[in-house]
Amino acid sequence: MVGMCFAGATLAQQDPQLTQYMFDRLSINPAVAGTSGQLCATGMFRQQWSGFDGAPKTGLFNAQMPINKISSGVGISAYFDKLGQQNSNFIRLSYSFHRKIGPGTFGVGLSGGLLAHSLGNNWIARDNPADDTAIPTAGQSDSKFDLGAGLYYTSPTFWIGLSSTHLSEPELDDVSIKGVRHYFVQAGYDWAIGGDKKYVLQPSALIKSDGTSTQVDLNATFLYNNQVWLGVTYRTEDAIAPMVGYQMHADKDKRSMFKIGYSYDVTTSRLKNYSSGSHEIMLNYCILLVKKPDLQIYKNVRFL
Questions:
Q1: What is the DSSP string of 243-287?
Q2: How far is it, in rounded angstroms, from Cα 202 to Cα 190?
Q3: Rounded to an integer, what distance in angstroms lies between the CA atom of residue 132 and that of residue 154?
Q4: pLDDT of 119-175, one tens digit each?
């Protein structure tokens, strides 16, 4: 299965797959940067297909903040993804220009960064890897500059985004990997059941495509009392994933929020006979940036 990835100048693997995608909108869409008006940091770790030797491991970190003086936002995303002998790393900087539309904020974003892939040399295969010129027996690595772009709109109860990564379709010749353009559509809605914000249903969706194949993630999460959530994600032809999480204000003024979440993918594809599922942990911290009041001193000779 792994060997299929290296026949000739192959296509790069999909961008990191995350079940709790609703907490990571930035890494695939630069227009998200700063649109919440908060300084946010998110970390995620995923152990996929437990039970496989060399199973995929993914780590992600991103941070973002608004720059209100220029109606903009900035962000940074970094991830590593390990699959057998292949290691993938990416770091990208994002910029988003904001405009207020109705009750929400519309962002237009652009990202740029470095995409890197490396191949190890500890191959275990039925056929001799030395017979395939696309497999570097001594190990090899390569990196290229990459671009992404996106559009995003968010309001107090609704969000939607359209974006693309690997716009430049970088060719990493030294590892026989070519990045292909990927497209993403993501959206979500917060519905206060019966108008009571103590009970909120949060349906969302993420559509991913490279132009030849498409995958859809559908999620429904129930948030109780703005503290505890339970949910489930369905990923077409792959998995059903229950999830649970907890959030709390981290200061007495309730300007900051800390979140922790966990999901477990129950594999539904043919891999279910060999894998015991996938585990994913999410940590998030956000703080609302409040502008300090502009205090002006007025002097009048009548009042000293």
A1: EEEEEEESSTTS-EEEEEEEEEEEE-SGGGGT---EEEEEEEEEE
A2: 5
A3: 49
A4: 877 666 666 666 666 665 667 888 899 999 999 999 999 999 999 999 988 888 777
Q: Which residue type is seen at 5?
A: C
Q: Strands 191-192, 182-189: parallel, antiparallel or unpaired by DSSP?
A: unpaired
Measured in whole angstroms, the distance separating CA 278 from the mean position of its chain's CA atoms is: 17
Q: What angle do CA 167, 173, 178 make, to 5 degrees?
A: 35
**297 located within any domain:** no
Q: What are phi and psi for residue 218, nearest 5 degrees? A: -120, 135
- The verdict on residue 104 lying in a domain is yes
* Amino acid identity for residue 19 in this structure: T
Q: Which domain holds residue 107?
A: 2-288
Kindly state the percentage of the chain with pLDDT values over 90.
59
> What value, to the nearest 5°, has the Cα angle with vertex 203 and ends 241 and 36?
110
Say what the pLDDT of residue 125 is.
63
Q: Mean pLDDT score of the chain, rounded to an integer?
A: 86
Distance separating alpha carbons of residues 299 and 304, to the nearest angstrom: 8
3-state DSSP call for residue 183? strand
Q: For the domain that residue 64 is a member of, what is the CATH number?
A: 2.40.160.40
pLDDT tens-digit readout, 242-265: 999 999 998 888 889 999 999 999
Cβ proximity of 278 and 47 under 8 Å: yes
Domain assignment present for 294:
no
- Is 241 within a domain? yes
Question: In the beta sheet, which residues pair with residue 162?
Answer: 151, 185
How many separate domains does the chain show? 1
